[in-house]
Amino acid sequence: MSATTYALGAFILLAYTLEAITGFGSIVIALSLGALLLPIDQLLPVLVPLNICMTGFLVSRHWRLIDRRLLLGMILPGMAIGTLAGYLLLPYLDEVSLKRGFGVLILWFAGRELWRLQRKAPAREHTPNWVMRLATTAAGICHGLFASGGPLLVFALATTTLDKARLRATLVSVWFSLNSLLTLAFLLDGRLVPALPQVLLYAPLLLVGVWLGERLHRRIDERHFRIAIYALLLITGTLLLVGP
């Protein structure tokens, strides 16, 4: 196996461990790092099926904690519409534009979260429903383009009263639902089958990531962990913007 294969495996392990801890971030981390090595359109048919395997397992374990009213009434309708729009837009964007756009997205999100963590900024006031619906649709568009709607969705949900465990359970149910649809789309457009050998190659890493993530979810100081992850995202976002 090549150095690229090993490097992508390390990125996947890091990213999926993070999602097992927080409920989001697997694809945005793996894609932002992996895009330094491979085209985004080659990465997505590998990362998305891996994600549904992991989120499916987490949903089966923590389904009682899912906020179904928020999920079905607010999140999924806007996310589904946005995801379809993003998927349909994808063929009209070139690789350079995708990388630049993705770089801007992760720089904005990582910079904002680092600022909030360092300044210990107070929580925002309650977000109006129309703003949340707009934000979830925008998150869906990002998900259709990059399978990475997590940053915008977490931003939209920042003023909810969900605790850490309920937020994680609700988020992974979103990714399981939407990424199942994206995987079906990749099957229909012919991108899934060529990617299956890589999916099978990296699948064992999910077991390690979930095991680590479940343990760390209960024990780790989430603030310090997030600072390290957001700093890593700032670096990779910058590399995506200035790279070839």
Q: Topology of this structure?
A:
Layout lengths: L2 H20 L3 H9 L5 H23 L5 H22 L5 H25 L9 H18 L3 H7 L7 H25 L3 H28 L2 H21 L2
Question: Outline of this structure?
Answer:
By secondary structure, this protein is mostly helical.
SSE pattern: HHHHHHHHHH
State the secondary-structure class: mainly alpha
Number of strands: 0
Shape label: globular
Secondary structure: helix percent:
over 70%
Number of helical segments? 10
Q: Note the main sheet.
A: none
Strand proportion, as a percent range, falls in under 5%
Low-confidence stretches: none
| Overall residue-averaged pLDDT value | 83
Q: Any idea how many domains?
A: 1
Provide the gyration radius in Å: 17 Å
**Between the first and last Cα atoms, what is the distance in angstroms?**
25 Å
Task: Please give a structural write-up.
By secondary structure, this protein is mostly helical. It contains ten helices and no strands. The radius of gyration is 17 Å and the shape is globular.
